Amino acid sequence: MKIKVMSRIDMNSIMLKALYNHTPIEAGIISISSSGFGKLPSLVFAKEVGLVPNVIFEEFDDIDMQVAYYYPITVPVAVDMVNFAKDLDEVWIHCDAGISRSAGVACALDEYYNLDGRSSFYWTDGYHHPNGLVYRTVMNVLNSGYIPFSDY
Asked: pTM of this prediction?
């Protein structure tokens, strides 16, 4: 599985180019927004006009623990992302900055599908700082061998 991590701004640029040029995007896209921030409009529109057939929208905050007024990743969200990505050859993942939440998901998918448990370069590349709770939640779902909420 090829995995690419990017920011909301980078994803927006890619979607605007795809819309302008009428270029379909073959990769599956995991779009992560902060709670209350909303979906990326250019990505929603690209999906509606059929340029991005494989996209999932998730909403959770970039936190490692429960904090009042913020929402961490949950197991059902991790299950949704794993079920979405498991049969894809290429996955693009974006969050607001493209540094923490998307890198946490990418680390788990990369280590599980590509590296046979070896550490992903997202941990050590000096740019990404994977969210530990996101990584652990997604990795726990991957390692469970049983995905209990297939269409949650």
From this structure: 0.90
